[in-house]
Amino acid sequence: MNHKLNEINCEKLEAISKEFLSLDKHNTFVFLLKEIISSINEQKKQLYIQYKSIYLAKNTIIDFRHILANKKAQKQKPISIGLFNFYLNYKRFISSCRSIGKDLKTYNFTESLNLGYLDGKGHIERITYLSCDPNLLNKEYSRYNKSKRITIKQLKHLYEEFKHFKGKDIWNDKLDASISSMISSIKDAGVTSLEDFVYIKNVFVKENKKEFIPSSGDQSTLILNQYLYSKNSEIQYYLFDEPEMSVGHNYVANYIIPRLKELGKEGKTVIVVTHDANIGVCTLPYQTIYRKEADDKYLTYIGNPFTGKLIEISNKDELDWSETALSYLEGGSDVFTEREVTYGRN
Protein backbone atom coordinates (compact mmCIF):
# COMPACT_ATOMS: atom_id res chain seq x y z
CA MET A 1 0.00 0.00 0.00
CA ASN A 2 2.79 2.40 0.95
CA HIS A 3 4.54 1.70 -2.34
CA LYS A 4 1.43 2.43 -4.37
CA LEU A 5 0.69 5.62 -2.46
CA ASN A 6 4.21 6.83 -3.04
CA GLU A 7 3.69 6.47 -6.77
CA ILE A 8 0.81 8.96 -6.66
CA ASN A 9 1.65 12.31 -8.18
CA CYS A 10 0.43 14.71 -5.48
CA GLU A 11 0.68 17.72 -7.77
CA LYS A 12 -1.67 16.09 -10.30
CA LEU A 13 -4.14 15.18 -7.55
CA GLU A 14 -4.12 18.73 -6.26
CA ALA A 15 -4.65 20.05 -9.79
CA ILE A 16 -7.63 17.70 -10.33
CA SER A 17 -9.06 18.62 -6.92
CA LYS A 18 -8.80 22.30 -7.65
CA GLU A 19 -10.59 21.82 -10.97
CA PHE A 20 -13.57 19.78 -9.70
CA LEU A 21 -14.00 20.72 -6.01
CA SER A 22 -15.00 23.91 -4.27
CA LEU A 23 -12.25 25.91 -2.63
CA ASP A 24 -13.13 24.69 0.88
CA LYS A 25 -13.28 21.05 -0.17
CA HIS A 26 -10.09 21.46 -2.19
CA ASN A 27 -8.23 22.88 0.83
CA THR A 28 -9.55 20.04 2.99
CA PHE A 29 -8.46 17.46 0.41
CA VAL A 30 -4.97 18.94 0.17
CA PHE A 31 -4.68 19.00 3.97
CA LEU A 32 -5.73 15.34 4.26
CA LEU A 33 -3.45 14.30 1.43
CA LYS A 34 -0.46 15.89 3.14
CA GLU A 35 -1.47 14.21 6.40
CA ILE A 36 -1.55 10.81 4.67
CA ILE A 37 1.86 11.33 3.06
CA SER A 38 3.30 12.54 6.36
CA SER A 39 1.87 9.51 8.18
CA ILE A 40 3.30 7.13 5.59
CA ASN A 41 6.75 8.70 5.85
CA GLU A 42 6.63 8.52 9.62
CA GLN A 43 5.69 4.82 9.52
CA LYS A 44 8.51 4.14 7.09
CA LYS A 45 10.96 5.94 9.35
CA GLN A 46 9.83 3.97 12.39
CA LEU A 47 10.09 0.68 10.50
CA TYR A 48 13.58 1.60 9.34
CA ILE A 49 14.65 2.53 12.89
CA GLN A 50 13.16 -0.72 14.19
CA TYR A 51 14.99 -2.77 11.55
CA LYS A 52 18.31 -1.03 12.20
CA SER A 53 17.86 -1.40 15.98
CA ILE A 54 17.35 -5.15 15.67
CA TYR A 55 20.29 -5.41 13.27
CA LEU A 56 22.53 -3.41 15.65
CA ALA A 57 21.43 -5.43 18.68
CA LYS A 58 22.04 -8.73 16.90
CA ASN A 59 25.51 -7.75 15.73
CA THR A 60 26.38 -6.28 19.14
CA ILE A 61 25.51 -9.62 20.80
CA ILE A 62 27.60 -11.49 18.24
CA ASP A 63 30.56 -9.13 18.79
CA PHE A 64 30.30 -9.48 22.58
CA ARG A 65 30.25 -13.26 22.22
CA HIS A 66 33.40 -13.11 20.10
CA ILE A 67 35.17 -10.85 22.64
CA LEU A 68 34.12 -13.07 25.55
CA ALA A 69 35.22 -16.23 23.78
CA ASN A 70 38.60 -14.70 22.96
CA LYS A 71 39.17 -13.56 26.55
CA LYS A 72 38.32 -17.02 27.90
CA ALA A 73 40.29 -18.72 25.14
CA GLN A 74 37.27 -20.88 24.46
CA LYS A 75 35.54 -21.78 21.26
CA GLN A 76 32.31 -19.92 20.79
CA LYS A 77 29.16 -21.97 20.92
CA PRO A 78 27.01 -21.56 17.83
CA ILE A 79 23.78 -19.64 18.24
CA SER A 80 22.28 -21.15 15.09
CA ILE A 81 22.88 -24.08 12.76
CA GLY A 82 23.63 -21.65 9.90
CA LEU A 83 20.85 -22.95 7.67
CA PHE A 84 19.36 -19.52 7.07
CA ASN A 85 22.74 -17.97 6.19
CA PHE A 86 23.48 -20.91 3.90
CA TYR A 87 20.20 -20.37 2.08
CA LEU A 88 20.82 -16.62 1.75
CA ASN A 89 24.33 -17.15 0.38
CA TYR A 90 23.02 -19.77 -2.03
CA LYS A 91 20.34 -17.40 -3.34
CA ARG A 92 22.88 -14.59 -3.72
CA PHE A 93 25.21 -16.90 -5.61
CA ILE A 94 22.48 -18.01 -8.01
CA SER A 95 21.32 -14.42 -8.49
CA SER A 96 24.89 -13.26 -9.20
CA CYS A 97 25.42 -16.03 -11.77
CA ARG A 98 22.22 -15.18 -13.60
CA SER A 99 23.03 -11.46 -13.45
CA ILE A 100 26.49 -12.04 -14.92
CA GLY A 101 25.03 -14.21 -17.69
CA LYS A 102 22.45 -11.54 -18.49
CA ASP A 103 25.07 -8.75 -18.52
CA LEU A 104 27.32 -10.70 -20.86
CA LYS A 105 24.46 -11.26 -23.28
CA THR A 106 23.11 -7.72 -23.26
CA TYR A 107 26.39 -5.77 -23.36
CA ASN A 108 26.90 -5.06 -27.06
CA PHE A 109 28.22 -1.59 -27.80
CA THR A 110 28.74 0.17 -31.13
CA GLU A 111 30.55 3.48 -31.65
CA SER A 112 31.22 5.45 -34.83
CA LEU A 113 34.07 7.89 -35.39
CA ASN A 114 34.67 10.12 -38.43
CA LEU A 115 38.37 9.78 -39.30
CA GLY A 116 38.57 12.31 -42.10
CA TYR A 117 38.71 12.42 -45.88
CA LEU A 118 40.58 10.22 -48.37
CA ASP A 119 40.85 11.03 -52.06
CA GLY A 120 38.77 8.60 -54.10
CA LYS A 121 37.07 7.17 -51.00
CA GLY A 122 35.38 10.19 -49.47
CA HIS A 123 34.80 10.60 -45.75
CA ILE A 124 36.01 7.57 -43.79
CA GLU A 125 34.21 6.24 -40.75
CA ARG A 126 35.53 3.76 -38.20
CA ILE A 127 32.88 1.61 -36.54
CA THR A 128 33.93 -0.06 -33.30
CA TYR A 129 32.02 -3.08 -32.01
CA LEU A 130 32.38 -4.20 -28.39
CA SER A 131 30.74 -7.41 -27.24
CA CYS A 132 30.75 -9.62 -24.13
CA ASP A 133 28.69 -12.43 -25.65
CA PRO A 134 31.15 -15.15 -26.79
CA ASN A 135 28.45 -16.63 -29.05
CA LEU A 136 28.55 -13.49 -31.21
CA LEU A 137 32.32 -13.47 -31.58
CA ASN A 138 34.33 -14.62 -34.59
CA LYS A 139 37.90 -14.37 -35.88
CA GLU A 140 37.37 -10.70 -36.76
CA TYR A 141 37.22 -9.85 -33.05
CA SER A 142 40.28 -9.47 -30.84
CA ARG A 143 40.64 -9.38 -27.07
CA TYR A 144 40.09 -5.95 -25.50
CA ASN A 145 42.52 -6.87 -22.73
CA LYS A 146 45.43 -8.17 -24.80
CA SER A 147 47.48 -9.08 -21.73
CA LYS A 148 45.21 -12.09 -21.11
CA ARG A 149 45.43 -15.35 -23.10
CA ILE A 150 41.78 -16.35 -22.79
CA THR A 151 40.31 -18.20 -25.75
CA ILE A 152 36.80 -17.69 -27.09
CA LYS A 153 36.17 -21.38 -26.39
CA GLN A 154 36.96 -20.87 -22.69
CA LEU A 155 34.73 -17.79 -22.54
CA LYS A 156 31.88 -19.68 -24.19
CA HIS A 157 32.15 -22.43 -21.60
CA LEU A 158 32.08 -19.91 -18.72
CA TYR A 159 29.26 -17.97 -20.33
CA GLU A 160 27.09 -21.10 -20.48
CA GLU A 161 27.89 -21.91 -16.86
CA PHE A 162 26.94 -18.43 -15.69
CA LYS A 163 23.83 -18.46 -17.85
CA HIS A 164 22.42 -21.89 -16.95
CA PHE A 165 23.67 -22.54 -13.40
CA LYS A 166 20.56 -23.17 -11.33
CA GLY A 167 21.59 -25.58 -8.58
CA LYS A 168 18.40 -27.54 -8.95
CA ASP A 169 18.71 -29.34 -5.60
CA ILE A 170 19.94 -27.09 -2.82
CA TRP A 171 20.33 -30.04 -0.43
CA ASN A 172 22.15 -32.27 -2.88
CA ASP A 173 25.86 -32.90 -2.39
CA LYS A 174 26.36 -32.10 -6.08
CA LEU A 175 25.76 -28.42 -5.33
CA ASP A 176 29.25 -28.05 -3.85
CA ALA A 177 30.69 -29.92 -6.82
CA SER A 178 28.91 -27.58 -9.26
CA ILE A 179 30.17 -24.47 -7.49
CA SER A 180 33.70 -25.90 -7.25
CA SER A 181 33.62 -26.72 -10.96
CA MET A 182 32.64 -23.15 -11.85
CA ILE A 183 35.34 -21.65 -9.63
CA SER A 184 37.89 -24.02 -11.17
CA SER A 185 36.82 -23.01 -14.69
CA ILE A 186 37.20 -19.31 -13.82
CA LYS A 187 40.69 -19.87 -12.43
CA ASP A 188 41.78 -22.04 -15.37
CA ALA A 189 40.65 -19.35 -17.82
CA GLY A 190 42.44 -16.64 -15.85
CA VAL A 191 39.30 -14.52 -15.61
CA THR A 192 39.53 -11.84 -12.94
CA SER A 193 36.85 -9.40 -14.11
CA LEU A 194 34.07 -9.01 -16.66
CA GLU A 195 36.52 -6.96 -18.75
CA ASP A 196 38.15 -10.28 -19.69
CA PHE A 197 34.97 -11.15 -21.63
CA VAL A 198 35.13 -7.99 -23.76
CA TYR A 199 36.15 -8.43 -27.41
CA ILE A 200 36.57 -5.62 -29.92
CA LYS A 201 36.29 -5.28 -33.69
CA ASN A 202 37.03 -2.22 -35.83
CA VAL A 203 35.52 -1.81 -39.29
CA PHE A 204 36.46 0.97 -41.72
CA VAL A 205 33.72 2.23 -44.03
CA LYS A 206 33.98 4.48 -47.08
CA GLU A 207 31.51 7.25 -47.82
CA ASN A 208 29.48 4.82 -49.96
CA LYS A 209 29.08 2.63 -46.82
CA LYS A 210 31.26 -0.15 -48.25
CA GLU A 211 33.83 -1.71 -45.93
CA PHE A 212 37.52 -1.61 -46.85
CA ILE A 213 40.93 -2.26 -45.32
CA PRO A 214 43.05 0.93 -45.22
CA SER A 215 46.52 0.68 -46.71
CA SER A 216 49.55 1.94 -44.77
CA GLY A 217 49.26 5.18 -46.72
CA ASP A 218 45.56 5.48 -45.90
CA GLN A 219 46.30 4.88 -42.23
CA SER A 220 49.02 7.54 -42.19
CA THR A 221 46.70 10.01 -43.89
CA LEU A 222 43.85 9.35 -41.46
CA ILE A 223 46.13 9.65 -38.43
CA LEU A 224 47.46 12.96 -39.75
CA ASN A 225 43.89 14.15 -40.34
CA GLN A 226 43.04 13.53 -36.69
CA TYR A 227 45.84 15.82 -35.50
CA LEU A 228 46.13 18.34 -38.30
CA TYR A 229 42.42 19.11 -38.18
CA SER A 230 41.79 18.52 -34.47
CA LYS A 231 38.97 20.68 -33.09
CA ASN A 232 40.65 20.79 -29.69
CA SER A 233 41.51 24.48 -29.35
CA GLU A 234 43.56 23.78 -26.22
CA ILE A 235 46.34 22.12 -28.25
CA GLN A 236 49.16 24.62 -28.51
CA TYR A 237 52.08 22.42 -29.57
CA TYR A 238 52.37 20.06 -32.54
CA LEU A 239 55.26 17.68 -33.23
CA PHE A 240 55.27 15.80 -36.55
CA ASP A 241 57.95 13.24 -37.40
CA GLU A 242 58.20 12.87 -41.18
CA PRO A 243 54.49 13.43 -41.93
CA GLU A 244 55.22 12.81 -45.61
CA MET A 245 55.86 9.11 -44.97
CA SER A 246 53.42 6.79 -46.77
CA VAL A 247 51.30 9.65 -48.11
CA GLY A 248 51.28 11.00 -51.64
CA HIS A 249 52.77 14.33 -52.66
CA ASN A 250 49.28 15.45 -53.60
CA TYR A 251 48.21 15.09 -49.97
CA VAL A 252 51.37 16.89 -48.84
CA ALA A 253 50.72 19.81 -51.19
CA ASN A 254 46.96 20.14 -50.71
CA TYR A 255 46.51 19.26 -47.04
CA ILE A 256 49.70 19.16 -44.97
CA ILE A 257 51.37 22.35 -46.19
CA PRO A 258 48.25 24.60 -46.11
CA ARG A 259 47.33 23.31 -42.66
CA LEU A 260 50.85 23.84 -41.27
CA LYS A 261 50.69 27.43 -42.49
CA GLU A 262 47.29 27.91 -40.84
CA LEU A 263 48.56 26.54 -37.52
CA GLY A 264 51.47 28.98 -37.68
CA LYS A 265 49.13 31.92 -38.31
CA GLU A 266 46.99 30.77 -35.36
CA GLY A 267 50.01 31.16 -33.08
CA LYS A 268 50.55 27.44 -32.57
CA THR A 269 54.03 26.03 -32.09
CA VAL A 270 54.65 23.48 -34.85
CA ILE A 271 57.81 21.36 -35.04
CA VAL A 272 58.26 19.18 -38.13
CA VAL A 273 61.03 16.67 -38.83
CA THR A 274 61.09 16.18 -42.60
CA HIS A 275 63.07 15.13 -45.65
CA ASP A 276 60.42 16.49 -47.98
CA ALA A 277 61.37 19.55 -50.01
CA ASN A 278 57.78 20.79 -50.30
CA ILE A 279 57.25 20.78 -46.53
CA GLY A 280 60.72 22.10 -45.73
CA VAL A 281 60.53 24.98 -48.23
CA CYS A 282 56.90 25.82 -49.06
CA THR A 283 55.82 26.20 -45.42
CA LEU A 284 58.31 29.11 -45.10
CA PRO A 285 59.45 28.02 -41.61
CA TYR A 286 60.17 30.69 -39.01
CA GLN A 287 63.17 28.63 -37.98
CA THR A 288 65.08 25.80 -39.63
CA ILE A 289 67.29 23.40 -37.68
CA TYR A 290 69.76 21.53 -39.86
CA ARG A 291 71.93 18.69 -38.53
CA LYS A 292 75.17 17.86 -40.33
CA GLU A 293 77.57 15.03 -39.59
CA ALA A 294 81.27 15.92 -39.69
CA ASP A 295 84.32 14.17 -38.17
CA ASP A 296 82.16 11.62 -36.29
CA LYS A 297 80.05 14.27 -34.64
CA TYR A 298 76.95 16.27 -35.45
CA LEU A 299 76.86 19.99 -36.04
CA THR A 300 73.66 21.94 -35.48
CA TYR A 301 72.77 24.90 -37.71
CA ILE A 302 69.91 27.31 -37.10
CA GLY A 303 68.43 29.81 -39.54
CA ASN A 304 65.48 30.54 -41.83
CA PRO A 305 64.65 31.35 -45.45
CA PHE A 306 64.09 35.03 -44.63
CA THR A 307 67.70 35.70 -43.61
CA GLY A 308 68.95 33.13 -46.11
CA LYS A 309 71.49 31.84 -43.59
CA LEU A 310 72.14 28.80 -41.41
CA ILE A 311 74.57 29.40 -38.53
CA GLU A 312 76.20 26.64 -36.46
CA ILE A 313 75.39 27.17 -32.77
CA SER A 314 78.92 26.42 -31.49
CA ASN A 315 81.56 27.46 -34.00
CA LYS A 316 79.36 30.01 -35.82
CA ASP A 317 80.09 28.41 -39.21
CA GLU A 318 77.71 29.83 -41.82
CA LEU A 319 75.85 28.06 -44.63
CA ASP A 320 73.57 29.41 -47.35
CA TRP A 321 69.97 28.41 -46.52
CA SER A 322 68.82 28.02 -50.16
CA GLU A 323 71.89 26.08 -51.29
CA THR A 324 71.61 23.72 -48.29
CA ALA A 325 67.90 23.13 -48.82
CA LEU A 326 68.48 22.57 -52.55
CA SER A 327 71.23 20.04 -51.81
CA TYR A 328 69.62 18.00 -49.04
CA LEU A 329 65.91 18.32 -49.80
CA GLU A 330 65.90 18.45 -53.60
CA GLY A 331 68.95 16.21 -54.20
CA GLY A 332 71.07 19.04 -55.61
CA SER A 333 70.74 21.71 -58.29
CA ASP A 334 71.47 19.28 -61.15
CA VAL A 335 68.59 16.98 -60.17
CA PHE A 336 66.32 19.96 -59.60
CA THR A 337 67.16 21.36 -63.07
CA GLU A 338 66.75 17.93 -64.69
CA ARG A 339 63.22 17.63 -63.32
CA GLU A 340 62.42 21.07 -64.68
CA VAL A 341 63.63 19.96 -68.14
CA THR A 342 61.65 16.72 -67.93
CA TYR A 343 58.51 18.63 -67.02
CA GLY A 344 59.15 21.10 -69.82
CA ARG A 345 59.17 24.01 -67.40
CA ASN A 346 62.67 25.38 -68.03
Task: Describe the model.
The protein has 346 residues and is of the alpha+beta class. 50% of the residues lie in helices and 18% in strands. It is built from 11 helices and 11 strands. It has helices at residues 2-6, 10-20, 23-72, 83-106, 152-164, 174-189, 216-228, 249-265, 277-282, 321-328, 333-343, and strands at residues 108-118, 122-131, 142-143, 199-205, 211-212, 237-241, 269-273, 288-294, 297-304, 309-312, 318-320. Strands 1, 2, 3, 4 and 5 form a 5-stranded antiparallel beta sheet that branches. The protein has a 4-stranded antiparallel beta sheet with strand order 8-9-10-11. The longest helix has 50 residues, at 23-72. The radius of gyration is 37 Å and the shape is elongated. The termini are far apart. The relative contact order is 0.06. The model has no long low-confidence stretch (mean pLDDT 83).
